[in-house]
Amino acid sequence: MAKKDYYEILGLEKGASDDEIKKAFRKLAIKYHPDKNSGDKEAEERFKEINEAYQVLSDPQKKAQYDQFGTADFDSSGFGGFNGGFDFSDMGGFGDIFDSFFGGGFGGGRKRNGPERGSDLEYNLNLSFEEAVFGVEKDISITRNETCETCRGSGAKPGTNARTCDKCSGSGQIRVQRNTPLGSFVSTTTCDKCGGKGKVIDSPCHTCHGKGKERKHRKINVKIPAGVDSGNIIPLRGQGEHGNNGGPPGDLYIRISVSPSKVFKRKGFDIYIDSNISMAKAALGTEITVPTVDGDVKYTVPAGTQSGTLFRLRGKGVPKVNSSGRGDQYVNIVVDIPKSLNEKQKEALKLFMEASGESHEDHKEGKDKKGFIDKIFGNK
Questions:
Q1: How far is CA 259 from the centre of its chain?
Q2: Is the pTM of this model over 0.85?
Q3: 55, 106, 327, 380 — which has fewest CB within 10 A?
Q4: Cα separation, 55 vs 59, whole angstroms
């Protein structure tokens, strides 16, 4: 056998510790394992080299001889039966390396006969604007898997019992030997006879057909708090699907969707609304009726109010969830400019301009003075 630098193969310096050798082997074994490099002959040869190096350097006696003589030619039998097969389930800490290579993994498959939590469910609930603002109670209908009432979840016909699986002896796992170009590998995987449950049902329940679960339609009363908004999620603990083998139930999550209002606009906990008034009322001041979610209120708009002015109505917004506070309502004043005027309205505006020291003729002559009156008379 030609001399090989086993330290170099594992990417180590000569004299590396046992822990360093073990870590290097784990890393390279995962990278070059044939099951992760199917059909790659170069990776297969590299994996053999890595294994060969590890078989020498992990053995104190062989390692000492290699360090002294620099050769792996210790005996005619090679490396302790490398081609004879490995049982990775008996390799202590190395079984976990190969869990990702083979279905159930080496040295441990997943048992399914222990308690398992039930799955969570989600329900989309549509609310009107007003329902979201003030809160509401809703009855919703869901379908979920529940523990079978006939067999109480055992899956067996009443009066009978499930028996221990004779293939896995109740462990839910079986050992499988696989032959590969590198030798024989022994892995532990889920028992195909009992599905990992460790038990076999000879007389299934006529209601659930051995599943231990049945589909049920349920009506659930949901209390929606005031102030919710689209995208909010309300959890209902324990209202999801029932668990397996005595496990707890999952949860039900209510996802809120709120329809927009034709009158109000919501931003957080505040409400916005437009209120249109004439230019005369904006100039002279007026009292307006403002709709709110609590009903109409009166509000005095002061003289000289400009279009775009926001007035705040304190505490007229959306209630804050699980709080006594509320947002505010903002009234946006929109001053309406008439698009056409009759003769009396034109004369009245001309008198107003004269009283203000302005002249309509001045506006017509001033090319850069297109103001409010120009827009009213349609001058260009």
A1: 24
A2: no
A3: 380
A4: 6
